[in-house]
């Protein structure tokens, strides 16, 4: 039990500390693909350090909700990172929340961010909040459908059990999982504010979604949000790995498998990050009202995955 | 323990009836206390006390075996039969629990009212409570219908409290009309259930109905009538039209009670008729209820997203929640008829849990809008904003309700949705293959409705409480009074506790579930973990969840403060290069709903009024209306008007003609009788 708790804390801390690294890697890859000279891999850490040292500038008449939200969002993301089996499986904290609760954690963070964006009452904040909620009300059920497909196969909504089942199945192809994987990729792109739904590098009012919400944040609050964003990308990546490429995650209590798990994770993350930046580089951002179509497709693919499971795999 | 709960003097059903009588007495006493404002002020607190006792009786009733009593009132052959079993007890607990919070709030809310109208209001209010409680206690059709009518009429008078405003009179009329169409259906339903024993009024007791052997055809007729009748009360699409009209018209505590508790009496009735009074249940009823429920949920939440009146928005959101309850009901029926008792128990638990949750958070949100209305005199969201600065208590307590209704962990709304989604995931293995195909789509719809509910709540909360005040007068908004806060605090505490202790709540629900499905939901976890069916399948521990979030929050906060600093500078918000910023430039409620209008435009009729460019006093208006009103209700209204006009031709106002009519009727009847 004590090793379990130790592993749990270690894994969560590792996720928190390594998340900016993944962000740095994705940025680096993208810069290469765009023919720019790339920032160093540690650039996100430097940005965070700079932001933490600055004085926070907060608009007049903000409510406490505005200053509370970054901490809340960070805490939610840390919780989510602790739930997903990254290095080791079946950690002591995982029974506290299953995949549906995980979707709930993401939703909680998102609602707090949207509310904080509306708190100051600038037009951009509300605009961002509205767009974010628009994206999310389609992305969230699509994500649930992906999880449902996986849980129908494994007869459980517990992530450890899902990973266990999917990692140790005899090599059988689940067509439903293929649909789910495509849907999951589309949802993760939307939820992490990446191209083609949102562009993390632009501040153009016609297009921005996530950036519009955090426009009023500065210094430590901004740092926490940026960190939470990196953590979210990291958690979604580990989720994708856990659902679709679970090989290599150390089974319960098997400490000897850990080095291999670390290696597997690094390789998967490096490849995944590069793939994400490649996909971003070759696609264009869609118009805002095309985003519902994009996510509607993801939602339908998720539902199709479930239907196909019932048709072919039961 | 049980012997303490059941007072030695009286049976718990008699205690419940005693509280009903106390409420009735209190209501009529209020009429005589018009000249004694101080005593009149005690009526609502005493009513609240009654509600608290009612919750206690309900709680005790869940632990005790059912008991019945026959009262010496009613028809000569059919006295009032009352019975308190676990199902009634649970809904009494709901009535008492939510009713206590709302009534405490009401005692503060109505304080400033003139004593004449206040006395009248107090009468209807307590009759309304008494009516609802009697509906839950009734054990024969006559008592049930009398209580049902008391409930409908008293709530009608409550809705039309401000009867001098024509819109409110109209809203009240619409409510009364649909309530009575529903009541007629219920009357017919009881007629069918009674099983054709002509002449004996005593056949109308529920006990007789339980024994009646019903062929599937007549059972289906009874079920459909019940679905229609109770659906009209609950706000099932397409009988939902009264809700968005009546809720904004009624005073806020009344809306809270109607939405939170009265709609649940319809759910209670549906459960009572389907699982208790009817001997057969058919699978297609479940499919029908599931489909209707999902339609209602989606319809409700889409319209909630485009509303710009805060109480209307909440009314639509009630329609959504009723839809979810009905979908859960349909799923329970599907499982039950398929012989999957454990799954039926799970779904029924989700249903009952959600009913209580909705009573609490919708009650909380409605009374929250009441405080806003009192402080600002404004219901239109486009004229509110920034109230978190002037009414922090109301705002933060309402936030709990908004997060709970959006289905976010670790609050209560999440638990019931979680249970329901778990039930959907357990469907493989149903014997009917077409159901296996339908269920994923149904699960997707529930997920979509839940996600849209979050959209609606961000809109509601963000536009009303956050941002800058859109009108200068809002800066003088005053905080709700002590008793109002206490009422809100009670409801908010309920939302939090029901969210944090699901394992205990399921224990409380077990007797009801056992009564209806002969099964109990086994919690495979312990007091901390909720694990329906099997811990390997799914588990959820909100307390650990909350503890981890809070611990992380605190650690990060301390770490940031310690390692760095807590320096803050204040400045103007960034103006994006536009020097003139004013609160009216914020997104409006209409603006926030615009994406939904664009995506789901097919469901609604959008009316836009855009002024001429040279208009000196431009007025912009956009309205999204319910298409069903035009497609369904308008033709019915037109047909009724046409038929009345045709019937009106008979009326000439001349006595000769009327005599001829009487004569013709007499001849006709004589021919008919002598034949």
Relevant terms:
heterodimer, A: mainly alpha, B: 675 residues, mainly alpha, 3 domains, 5 strands, 68% helix, 4% strand, globular
Task: Explain the overall architecture.
The complex is a heterodimer of chains A (314) and B (675). By secondary structure, chain A is an all-alpha fold. Chain A has one domain (2-313). In chain A, 70% of the residues lie in helices and 1% in strands. Chain A has 11 helices and 1 strand, in the order ααβααααααααα. The model of chain A has no long low-confidence stretch (mean pLDDT 87). Chain B is mainly alpha-helical and 675 residues long. In chain B, α6 runs antiparallel to α7 (141-159), α10 packs antiparallel against α12 (252-277) and α15 runs antiparallel to α16. The longest helix of chain B has 36 residues, at 341-376. Chains A and B meet through β1, α3, α4, α5 and α11 of A and α16, α17, α18, α21 and β3 of B. β1 of chain A pairs parallel with β3 (568-571) of chain B, so a sheet runs across the interface.
Helices and strands, with pairings:
The complex is a heterodimer of chains A (314) and B (675).
Chain A (H helix, E strand, L loop, with lengths): L1 H32 L9 H11 L2 E4 L4 H20 L15 H22 L2 H32 L4 H9 L7 H17 L18 H4 L5 H26 L13 H25 L8 H23 L1
Chain B lengths: L1 H4 L6 H21 L4 H4 L2 H21 L3 E8 L4 E6 L1 H24 L5 H23 L3 H19 L6 H28 L12 H6 L4 H19 L8 H7 L2 H26 L5 H23 L4 H28 L3 H36 L15 H14 L6 H14 L7 H33 L16 H19 L1 H16 L24 H22 L4 E4 L17 H11 L4 E6 L11 E6 H22 L6 H20 L1
Helix pairs in contact in B: 2-4, 2-6, 4-5, 5-6, 5-12, 5-15, 5-19, 6-7, 6-12, 7-8, 7-12, 8-10, 8-11, 10-12, 11-12, 11-14, 12-14, 12-15, 13-14, 13-18, 14-15, 14-18, 15-16, 15-17, 15-19, 15-20, 16-18, 16-19, 17-18, 17-19
């Amino acid at each position: 039990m004590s090793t379990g708790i130790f592993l749990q804390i270690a894994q969560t801390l590792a996720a928190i500390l390594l998340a900016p690294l993944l962000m740095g890697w994705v940025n680096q890859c993208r810069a290469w693909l765009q023919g720019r000279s790339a920032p160093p891999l540690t650039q996100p850490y430097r940005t965070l350090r700079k932001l933490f040292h600055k004085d926070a500038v907060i608009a007049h008449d903000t409510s406490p909700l505005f200053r509370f939200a970054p901490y809340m969002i960070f805490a939610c993301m840390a919780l989510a990172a602790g739930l997903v089996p990254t290095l080791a499986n079946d950690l002591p904290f995982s029974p506290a929340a299953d995949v549906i609760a995980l979707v709930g954690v993401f939703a909680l963070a998102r609602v707090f961010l949207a509310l904080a964006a509306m708190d100051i009452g600038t037009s951009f904040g509300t605009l961002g909040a509205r767009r974010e909620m628009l994206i999310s009300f389609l992305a969230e059920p699509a994500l649930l459908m992906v999880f449902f497909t996986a849980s129908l196969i494994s007869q459980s909504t517990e992530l450890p059990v899902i990973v266990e089942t999917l990692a140790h199945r005899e090599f059988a192809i689940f067509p439903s999982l293929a649909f789910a994987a495509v849907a999951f990729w589309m949802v993760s792109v939307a939820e992490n504010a990446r191209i083609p739904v949102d562009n993390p590098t632009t501040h153009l009012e016609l297009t921005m979604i996530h950036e519009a919400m955090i426009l009023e944040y500065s210094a430590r609050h901004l740092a926490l949000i940026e960190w939470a964003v990196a953590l979210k990308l990291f958690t979604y990546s580990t989720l994708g790995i856990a659902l679709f490429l679970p090989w290599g995650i150390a089974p319960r209590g098997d400490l000897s498998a850990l080095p291999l798990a670390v290696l597997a994770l690094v390789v998967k993350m490096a490849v995944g990050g590069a793939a994400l930046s490649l996909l971003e580089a070759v696609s264009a951002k869609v118009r805002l009202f095309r985003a519902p179509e994009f996510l509607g497709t993801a939602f339908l693919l998720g539902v199709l995955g479930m239907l196909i499971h019932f048709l072919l795999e039961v | 323990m049980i012997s303490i709960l059941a007072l030695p003097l009286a049976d718990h059903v008699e205690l419940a009836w005693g509280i009903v009588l106390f409420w009735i007495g209190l209501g009529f006493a209020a009429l005589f206390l018009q000249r004694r404002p101080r005593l009149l002020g005690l009526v609502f607190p005493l009513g609240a006390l009654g509600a608290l006792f009612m919750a206690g009786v309900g709680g005790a009733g869940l632990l005790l075996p059912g008991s019945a009593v026959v009262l010496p009132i009613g028809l000569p052959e059919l006295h009032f039969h009352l019975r308190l079993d676990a199902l009634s007890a649970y809904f009494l607990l709901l009535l008492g629990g939510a009713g206590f919070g709302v009534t405490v709030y009401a005692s503060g809310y109505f304080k400033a009212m003139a004593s004449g109208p206040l006395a009248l209001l107090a009468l209807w209010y307590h009759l309304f409570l008494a009516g609802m409680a009697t509906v839950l206690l009734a054990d024969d059709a006559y008592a049930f219908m009398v209580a049902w009518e008391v409930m409908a009429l008293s709530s009608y008078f409550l809705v039309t409290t401000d009867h001098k405003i024509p819109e409110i009179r109209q809203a009240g009329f619409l409510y009364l009309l649909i309530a009575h169409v529903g009541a007629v259906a219920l009357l017919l339903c009881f007629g069918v259930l009674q099983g054709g024993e002509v002449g004996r009024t005593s056949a109308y007791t529920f006990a007789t109905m339980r024994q009646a052997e019903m062929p599937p055809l007549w059972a289906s007729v009874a079920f459909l009538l019940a679905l229609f009748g109770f659906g009209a009360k609950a706000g099932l699409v397409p009988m939902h039209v009264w809700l968005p009209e009546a809720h904004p018209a009624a005073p806020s505590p009344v809306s809270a009670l109607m939405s939170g508790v009265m709609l649940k009496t319809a759910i209670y009735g549906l459960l009572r008729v389907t699982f208790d009074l009817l001997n057969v249940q058919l699978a297609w009823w479940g499919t029908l209820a599931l489909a209707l429920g999902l339609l209602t949920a989606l319809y409700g939440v889409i319209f909630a997203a485009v509303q710009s009146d805060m109480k209307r928005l909440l009314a639509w959101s009630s329609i959504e929640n009723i839809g979810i309850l009905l979908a859960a009901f349909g799923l329970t029926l599907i499982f039950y008829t398929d012989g999957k008792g454990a799954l039926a128990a799970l779904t029924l638990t989700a249903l009952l849990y959600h009913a209580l949750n909705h009573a609490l958070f919708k009650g909380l949100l409605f009374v929250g809008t009441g405080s806003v209305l009192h402080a600002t005199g404004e219901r239109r969201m486009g004229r509110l904003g920034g109230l978190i600065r002037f009414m922090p208590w109301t705002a933060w307590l309402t936030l709990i309700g908004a997060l709970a209704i959006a289905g976010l962990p670790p609050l209560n709304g999440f638990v019931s949705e979680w249970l329901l989604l778990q039930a959907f995931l357990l469907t493989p293995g149903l014997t009917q293959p077409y159901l296996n195909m339908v269920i994923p789509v149904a699960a997707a719809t529930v997920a979509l409705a839940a996600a849209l509910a979050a959209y609606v709540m961000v809109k509601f909360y963000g536009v009303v409480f956050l941002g800058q005040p859109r009108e200068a007068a809002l800066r003088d908004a005053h905080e709700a009074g002590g008793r109002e806060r206490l009422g809100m605090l009670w409801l908010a505490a309920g939302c939090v506790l029901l969210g944090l202790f699901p394992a205990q709540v399921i224990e409380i629900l077990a007797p009801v579930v056992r009564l209806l499905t002969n099964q109990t939901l086994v919690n495979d976890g312990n007091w901390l973990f909720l694990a329906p069916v099997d811990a390997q399948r799914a588990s959820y521990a909100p307390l650990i969840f909350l503890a981890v979030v809070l611990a992380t929050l605190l650690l990060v906060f301390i770490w940031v403060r310690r390692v760095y600093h807590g320096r803050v500078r204040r400045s103007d918000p960034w103006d994006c290069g536009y020097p003139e910023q004013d609160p009216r430039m914020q997104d409006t409620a209409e603006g926030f709903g615009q994406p939904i209008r664009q995506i789901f435009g097919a469901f609604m009729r959008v009316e836009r009024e855009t002024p001429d460019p040279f208009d000196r006093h431009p007025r912009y208006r956009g309205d999204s209306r319910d298409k069903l009103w035009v497609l369904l209700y308008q033709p019915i209204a037109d047909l009724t008007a046409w038929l009345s006009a045709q019937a009106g031709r008979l009326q000439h106002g001349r006595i000769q003609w009327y005599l001829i009519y009487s004569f013709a009727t007499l001849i006709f009847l004589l021919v008919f009788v002598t034949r």
